[in-house]
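Reminder to self: keep the SMILES exactly as supplied, no canonicalising. Ligand is adenosine-5'-triphosphate.
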Amino acid sequence: MTIPKPSASALRASSSSPDPRDAWIEELQSRMVQLERLAAVGELTSTTTHEFNNLLMTVMNYAKMGLRNKDDASREKAFSRILEAANRGAKITSMVLGLSRSRPGELEPTKLARVIEDTLVLLEREMQKYRILVDKQIDDVPLVMAAADQIQRLLLNLLTNARQAIGENGMIKIKLAFEASSNSVVLTVRDSGCGIAQELLTKIFDPFFTTKSGPDSSGKGGTGLGLSACKEIVEKHHGRIRVESAVGKGTAFCIRFPVTTEAAEEKPAA
Ligand SMILES: Nc1ncnc2c1ncn2[C@@H]1O[C@H](COP(=O)(O)OP(=O)(O)OP(=O)(O)O)[C@@H](O)[C@H]1O
Ligand SMILES: [Mg+2]
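Structure tokens returned for the bound complex:
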């Protein structure tokens, strides 16, 4: 991928004409976001392939059970397990397709609790593998104007960072609550990981800032684009993202989404 650099004469253009560097930087930023999206989808491929393998095993085993046992109860059980596995497979496929769409989805009244649940389906095995307990405290909050695919990317980035900061054996807490004073819905992702040194806190949202040497054992991470993508997503949602961290104790990312009357008046999507 090459992005033509503006010529020297264009860069010397008078201050009254639009600065060609602005367009160039804008183009670079949008390509960067695209790259981050593709990297995220690439990383998901290995997770989802394993998950699909597990689902296929379930389908095959219950199909065999149904064929072997002719009684109604066994067949009923076999069919319902096969249906459950197929539904889970369909959910995973539609999420990966949503994440790989080059155009981000529109903001619409969204139930964040559902997006959290859907995203966790993708990370369930990974968290089990690294023995990380995911604790959810999800309140019944108002709808917010959001693009579900964008929020999924945000959560995937935050949860992957949290998992990598923990290494093995630890806890991630996901909290969703309404904050009346700011009329916003607050999403908090807190981990029991290594924490972030005070002097790095101002840098972590910069594109390409990373302390990781490359992809980890699960093939994820190390480009330094995750949090800059998160910040951009939060800004598109007119929200705020804040971090607090203590070295050796853990980190919490806290995101505020404004509750708009538009979102509050709509009914949740089925
Ligand atoms: N939960 C966390 N705990 C500790 N450090 C974190 C956490 N989240 C982010 N960081 C620090 O912030 C840096 C930047 O994070 P960011 O997600 O942008 O990039 P990355 O994880 O290094 O690479 P990737 O592009 O694959 O996400 C990380 O390298 C890490 O040092
Ligand atoms: Mg990251």
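Points to follow up:
The chain has a mean pLDDT of 86.
The domain at 108-265 is CATH 3.30.565.10 (Heat Shock Protein 90).
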